[in-house]
Amino acid sequence: xxxxxxxxxxxxxxxxxxxxxxxxxxxxxxxxxxxxxxxxxxxxxxxxxxxxxxxxxxxxxxxxxxxxxxxxxxxxxxxxxxxxxxxxxxxxxxxxxxxxxxxxxxxxxxxxxxxxxxxxxxxxxxxxxxxxxxxxxxxxxxxxxxxxxxxxxxxxxxxxxxxxxxxxxxxxxxxxxxxxxxxxxxxxxxxxxxx
Length: 195
Hints:
By secondary structure, the chain is of the alpha/beta class. 31% of the residues lie in helices and 22% in strands. It has helices at residues 36-43, 86-102, 121-132, 152-162, 182-194; strands at 6-12, 25-30, 62-67, 71-75, 106-114, 137-142, 171-173.
């Protein structure tokens, strides 16, 4: 897909602020620092539309990115970052639950995990949450460029097993450095937009 148009529309904290355009939304969920912003920037070929931060726990709102006036990427607050206070975490949890359970235009969740490490308890909990609410999702394993290609199958198997994924099809191995997995990600998005 050729991206001609990409802009951040709003950083929302509650449903009253969500866009009312009715366009499909792809939510990006994952631990703080897993590379959600880098993923957005890579797939849309922009250097810095989505702000990346070296400080985890920076995204504290639902950031809506409108792509080609056709759909939104919604970057949701990262989880699993210890330096955020309990009350902050509870607030995010509430915000995420409201979004995931009530947003009718949410068509797919991209659950992002770090390819280098086995999924954390938080990753597994997030996957269970997504499945519990019957939301379609795909796991995107980021930072694959940090692992020698010969070990990819081994790492993919660990992730697949830990998250109990039905098939390798439900996993996209991705690198925002090399662009690995970018076409597969677009294939998935296009499929949903054409349905």
